[in-house]
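Hi L.,

You mentioned the student needs an example of a multi-chain input paired with its predicted structure. This one should do, with 680 residues in total across all chains.
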Amino acid sequence: MTGRTESKQSTRPSSLLFLAVLLVLSSIPASAGPPPDFRLQDLDGKWFSLSENLDGNVVYVTFWATWCVPCRREMPHLEKLHQEFGDQGLKVIGVNTDPPGTTSKIKPYIKQYKISYTTLLDPNNNVLDKYNPTRELPYAVLIDRDGNVEQVFPGYRAGDEKVLREKIVALLGQGNTAEEETAPGATE
Amino acid sequence: MRPSRLVPALATVLALTVPTSAQEGDQPQTKSYRIFGQLTSYLELNQANERDDYTKFKQLASFNVEWSKFTIGGQAEYLYYSDPEVADPLDLDRLREGFELRKYFFDYQSDLFTGRLGTFFSSLGRGLTLYVQKNEVLGFDEPIHGATARLTLKHFDLTVLGGRVTEPLLQNQYNREFEDEVVGGRALVRLPLDLYLGGSAVKARLDRFFPAGTDDVEVWSIEAGGSGIGGFLDLAAEISEIDKTEGNRFKEGYGRYFSAAAYIGPVSILGEYKDYYNFAYRYNQPPNAGRSDEAYEHNDVKGPRLLVSADLFATGTLLHASYATFNTHKETTSPGGTGGDGQNEWYAGIEQTIGRVYFAASYFDRDWVDRKIKEQHTLADFHVTVGRAGELILGFDQRLETSAYFSIDTTRNTLGYSLSPWGSVSLRYSWEGRSGFDREDFWGVEIQYLPKPNLIVTVFGGGDPGGLVCAGGQCRQEPRFEGFKANFTWRF
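Structure written out for the whole complex:
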């Protein structure tokens, strides 16, 4: 069978190309700048424009879905940050990316997790496609008071909320970097 | 009007409307231009069939330039197979090769008007009349090529769209390209007390696989509902009718969807009723009758579902439970009611965080009453925080399908460690047991590394049994895999 020999030979150029791309791009720093603007409706059908909410605020936009377990784990931490820093200029915006057939399940979900920050709907994923064309969730961007992207947060791992908190505190211009004492929802 | 004529007409309307709407009550254009995008490289050395192993390489480049209220963007793809003839039939990428501009668009966005020329995804209402999305289940990404526009006034919302869309599943099956046309729109009026009333209509011309020709579809719906009624109730209803031709046959069908959600203290209760008869066409996807990751065919199914979720003791213990029962209309229309395909399903789950420990578990159970098949799906995740930013993860995912004649057991066990913000390492041990065959074991290791927040490198080496894998909220039949995969993503 010749397939095995041919495939092994043809592996080399694509592997080398892959490594070359990796090396080149690893040396390029992350860029900053304003995030892609969007207008989406919230759960009650009211319109929300990102650009109209950027002015002078620190904004955290996170894309999530009801089926996404890491999203579920991140949400209580975001609610806690929203409660703690909301009146100091932090805006947390959750953009739900579930398909339109799931719309009825989103509000019960929000209620169950006691989420009080803004929830928007992107059922066609056209906004998600601009921010993250490969659509892995969760995916979030942190935007500073000047309206520029400070950092992107692909995925969620336990401990990411500490990194996020430190960034938010720094962007809000606070000196208090105390860590969260217990995880949200804890029943120690 | 034929869709092919309507697309350029829509494009013209869109182009004419942009400068007008840009002057109406828009904010000053103070934003400078911005370039952003994503580069993704994927390499696969597939050795699932050891006599015919092959290499796949896929490069995706997404590029957007945004200036003021305008965005121009696109996504280019380069695809290479060392031997497309031996590539897995479930891999729809193998239908393409070489360079292709997959997506392209010109966007305008203001408070009053949004419009796009080029490629886009769209759905109308709850997906009863139109649903064109990236298909995560089957792994294809085919948008509409055309134009869409949306006018938003204080109490009125109008969307129109039209274009061509291709169908890779049929192409895969019949080995030739299929190209369809869709045109449609939706209007919605917002009423006092957060109520709404609207409707949508779509006309589609579908490329027929045999005999050569086209089939026509006309589907419309009326929708109504409201949120926060009485401070605790959300209601939604959508009623739809469909007329379609299939060759020289004419078919009529309908879709009905109702939902009511109530919020009482820490408890949320959602009730849904679906009734779809002769309702499926290539580009609709109404609310799924089953759990989101346990989809049903929506052409002929009816039945209710009840979902209750709660933080019952206000201690962070999250509970959810659901019960549903479905059948086809043949239950009542066939002689003696013998043509039904009844299904009863229930599932329940719990989620709890206690200090450094997070635990989540769920159990799903479905009985296919007429087929006499039982499906069970058990999930359990156990996470322990280690140190300041580390976490140990234990995962269990078992899917069982049993009947009097066969049984299939596909189980995945995961042991992982993640370290924020750098990435994770996962060891996966899976097996597949089929009645009458020896059990097969699979080992795999996945490493994800984030040298910077905008760079992600993922590598996987080893094997996976494939089969029905539920991830991303949907389930897909994944091919059995042995070999090596690497994925690199850079966002800029």
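You could point out the following to them. The longest strand of chain A covers residues 58-64. The first helix of chain A runs from residue 3 to 26.

Best wishes,
N.
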